[in-house]
Amino acid sequence: MPEYTDLTVSAGTYSHHAFEPHFHEHFVIQIVEHGVNEGICNKTKYQVVPNEILILNPGDLHTGSSFQNNLLRYKCICPDSSHLTQILDDLNLHASSSPEFNSLLVRDRKVALNLQAYINNEDNKEPLESSILLIESLGQLFLQHSNIKLEIPPKKQEKNKAQLMTDYIRDNYNRKFTLQELSSHFELSPFYLIKLFSKNYHQTPYQYLRNYRIEIAKEKIKKGDSITQVALKTGFYDQSHFHRNFFRITGLTPFQFSKQYHTRFGGTMI
């Protein structure tokens, strides 16, 4: 998690524990993975089930326990005031007063799954993917469930930038680069950059990068390059990482693709 390296991420697994009333000095964004978390926040009762999100503002007095003492498993992201300025800048958001969420419970499965994917990406093999997951998720939460608003850059800022972004990705597909690098290069906030790119190409910059890498990999396999070399030459972390992503895009392993192609058209098997 290179761009928010000190962002606190925590996890909990409980079945017979009830938290006494308490508060935090930071935000808590909790995603339940298994079971039901029930409690009271500022005198409001809540129940959170898997793929729902509990959001606590600093100072919110709350309790929590597992429903009927069944197994409860959850994970949390806990941004404090030191993270907030950077996060809001990256999201291109403006708060006229102290940022505050106005929704205790958010039912948005896509955002919940993206936050889980970000938290679970501990090996950080793809820093671009990791940053996009976080920025997109927090952006949706702040825009839809808080008191802050999106600042829209001038229209002229959009001209040709989406196309230039694809050129940049294609020119740098065989190395790792971060969302912050893209943001600085094109002088756009990370959140607005993602929105602009997705508006034009219906996918995130990372999804585009992965797809392009696989297209290059297929051509190299057709030419007879070894799968190990193809994985390294196309920017994947290792052969396992390459296999997993190749299968997601093509429905075949690299070896199956190679066998299918060379059996049909001849040539050297890998």
Tell me the Rg in angstroms: 22 Å
Shape, please?
globular
Percentage beta strand = 15-25%
Query: Helicity, in percent?
Result: 40-55%
Low-confidence stretches: none
Oligomer: single chain
| Overall domain count | 3
Structural class: alpha+beta
What separation lies between the terminal Cα atoms?
Answer: 35 Å
The CATH class designation of the largest domain is Mainly Beta
Mean pLDDT across residues? 85
- CATH T-level fold name of the largest domain: Jelly Rolls
Helix count from the secondary structure assignment: 10
CATH architecture of the largest domain: Sandwich
Largest sheet, strands/sense/barrel: 5 strands, antiparallel
Kindly describe this structure.
- The chain has three domains: 2-145, Regulatory protein AraC (Jelly Rolls), CATH 2.60.120; 152-206; 217-265, Orthogonal Bundle (Arc Repressor Mutant, subunit A), CATH 1.10.10.
- The radius of gyration is 22 Å and the shape is globular.
- Helices cover 45% and strands 19% of the residues.
- A hairpin with a 2-residue loop joins strand 4 (37-41) and strand 5 (44-48).
- It is α+β, with helices and mostly antiparallel strands and 270 residues long.
- The protein has helices at 81-91, 109-120, 127-145, 161-171, 179-186, 190-201, 205-222, 227-233, 239-250, 254-265, and strands spanning 8-14, 18-22, 28-34, 37-41, 44-48, 53-56, 62-66, 72-78, 93-94, 105-106, 149-150.
- It has a five-stranded antiparallel beta sheet, covered by helices on one side. A four-stranded antiparallel beta sheet has the order 2-7-4-5, with no helix packed on it. It has a two-stranded antiparallel ribbon with strand order 9-11.
- The protein contains ten helices and eleven strands.
- Helix 2 (109-120) runs antiparallel to helix 3 (127-145), helix 4 crosses helix 7 (205-222) and helix 8 (227-233) crosses helix 9.
